[in-house]
Design brief:
It is a single chain. By secondary structure, the chain is of the alpha+beta class. The protein has 2 domains: 65 residues; 286 residues, no CATH class. It is globular, with a radius of gyration of 20 Å. The N and C termini lie far apart (70 Å).
């Protein structure tokens, strides 16, 4: 009798997982909203995270099975490319091809994007890598950004991460920046309050207090940036913003996910064992910013992708299909913009970034 009950429960879990995979594939936004607004309050965050693990890992397993004899496709950029300029400060040495599978066309080759904001200058380059030897379909798009020409900012969302404790943000790019026609890009920030209560400070306002042993990005008023393993150290003068999210991925060239301390912390972090869409942010030796986004990733393979692209320090940002976003903006004058996601398979977040978004996000603007 007991064995029959166990078999029935396993069958129900399997059916639920498959139904969840189909739901997510057919309507990612609806699935994400339903999960956050209905399932989490009803069943609790831990139980829903367990279900998410079943959903995403079942999807990944199906992908593994069905992709064995199927071709792997490179991500399709939404932007044209331009020839290299003589004053390029981006590092565009090709990333070596992975030894475990045949190189795809343009894999690891940096291509400079044509941007209306910089018609005669290359400030953003794009490539893709595959960091997981067991998952050739796990493709990570990398954007490399010249931080001598651009400056990074962050804004708190109207609900996340501080709304639960009475500290909501505007949820949109500052209006004075929008009307200046200097906005260049925007991309997702960190986790929600309930998934870690990770710290965030912007322009002296604390949305959530900082916590030790977390990957932390610090921006300064002069435009400089650093990514550190925060253990309570002094962050220095003229701090513009601080955002934390999960244990550090790469710390001074070493994979933080392999550190014994961080392994324990990742074990307590929601979604650490889930193969899903993830984003991360890294810094190269010469100070260029790296944004990484890809499917079927764990924190470890996300870290590997960023390290392949030259990151010396890196943190994870938001995860799951509905929340991973990167939009580039083209100014049209009078504070108006057109915008496209970095690749075809990313959700378009431009309207939310300009008009109001529930979650925090970063933005890049012309210095």
């Amino acid at each position: 009798m007991f064995a029959k009950i166990i078999k029935t429960l396993l069958l129900l879990i399997t059916i639920t997982a498959l139904a969840g995979v189909v739901f997510i594939k057919l309507n990612t936004s609806a699935a994400a909203e339903f999960t956050d607004n209905v399932l989490r309050p009803a069943f609790g965050a831990k139980n829903v995270i367990f279900l998410e693990k079943i959903f995403f890992n079942t999807s990944d397993k199906l992908h593994q099975i069905t992709s064995k004899n199927s071709p792997v496709f490179a991500p399709v950029s939404n932007f044209e490319f331009q020839t290299n300029d003589d004053n390029l400060t981006l590092s565009i040495q090709p990333i070596p091809a992975p030894p475990d599978f045949k190189k795809l066309k343009s894999e690891g080759d940096w291509k400079i994007l044509k941007l209306d904001s910089f018609p005669n200058q290359g400030v953003v380059a794009q490539t893709f890598v595959r960091p997981d030897k067991d998952r050739p379909y796990s493709v990570v798009t990398i954007a490399q950004i010249d931080m001598k020409s651009l400056q990074l900012g962050i804004v708190a969302g109207t609900k996340e991460p501080g709304g639960k404790v009475g500290n909501p943000g505007s949820g949109k790019v500052p209006n004075e920046l929008v009307i200046s026609n200097r906005l260049v890009a925007a991309f997702d920030g960190g986790f929600q309050f309930r998934d870690g209560e990770y710290g965030m400070i912007v322009n002296g306002k604390t949305y959530l207090p900082l916590k030790n042993d977390l990957g932390t990005i610090v921006g300064y008023k002069n435009g400089s940036i650093k990514i550190i393993d925060y253990i309570g150290q002094d962050l220095g003068q003229d701090v513009a913003f601080v955002r934390q999210n999960c244990p550090i991925l790469i710390n001074d060239g070493n994979l933080g996910v392999e550190d014994i301390k961080n392994k324990k912390l990742w074990g307590r972090t929601p979604s650490a064992g889930i193969y899903t869409w993830r984003t991360g942010l890294g810094l190269t030796k010469n100070g260029n910013l790296l944004f990484a986004v890809g499917n079927s990733l764990t924190p470890e393979t996300l870290a590997l992708a960023l390290k392949m692209a030259g990151a010396q320090n890196a943190i994870q940002l938001d995860i799951n299909p509905n929340w991973v976003r990167f939009n580039l903006f083209s100014p049209q004058g009078d504070g108006k913009y057109t915008s496209k996601p970095l690749t075809h398979d990313l959700k378009d977040g431009s309207s939310a970034y300009l008009n109001g978004y529930t979650k925090d996000f970063f933005y890049l603007y012309k210095r």
